[in-house]
Amino acid sequence: MTALPDWMVLSPEGLSAEAYEALPEDISRRIEVVDGAILVYAAPRRAHQILARRLAHAIEYVCDDHLAVATDIDLRLRDIPLLNRRPDIAVYDASLPDEEVLRPGHCLMVIEVMSPGSVTADQDKPAEYAAAGIKHYWRVELNDHDHGPAVFRYRLDPTTGYYASAGVDTGKLKVSDPLPLEVDLIELI
Fold first, then answer.
1. What is this structure's pTM?
2. What CATH number matches the domain at 44-188, 3.90.1570.10, 3.90.950.10, 3.30.460.10, 3.30.1050.10?
C-alpha cells in the first residue's frame, strides 16, 4: 500500500487557507479545495486548454486597463472551511496586487469550459460563484468541430442571489455585457 503524501493528510477540519498557501505551486495548480477537502484533477485535454486560452485572449483584447484576464487561477471563495476553486478564465480588477489572493469581490466574471472529465466536478461551481456574488458566469461546452462550442451566459440576479440566463450562443458570440465582445466560436477550436 502507498502512503499519502504529507500535504494530503488532513486534520479533521480539512485543509486550511494557511496550509494551502504553503503548498508548492506544482501541487496547488492541480487541486481545488471544497470545505477543506482536497479534490485532485487530471490536466484538461488539449482542446479544452486551447479553447480556454483563445477565449481568454479574445476577452483580454477588449478589456479596459482596469480589468485583467487570467486562466486557471486560484479563486478564494471562502476561508473557513476553505473553498478554493480554479476557474478556467477569470476577469478581475487589474489593480489587484499579484501577491494578493483573488476573491469574488475582485471578479467581474468567471468562465468554466466543460469537458468530459470535468462535467460532474463543475456542477456545483455556479451556485458557489453566485453565492459569492460574482456578477457574471459563463459555461462553455465543447461540441464537435462542425458546430463549435456553445456558450451559456448567466447574470447574477440581485433579488434572488442566483444566476439567470443571459443567453446561449453558438457559431458567433456577440455581446455588450459585461464586455463588448464578438468572437467566431468555431475559430476557438
1. 0.91
2. 3.90.1570.10
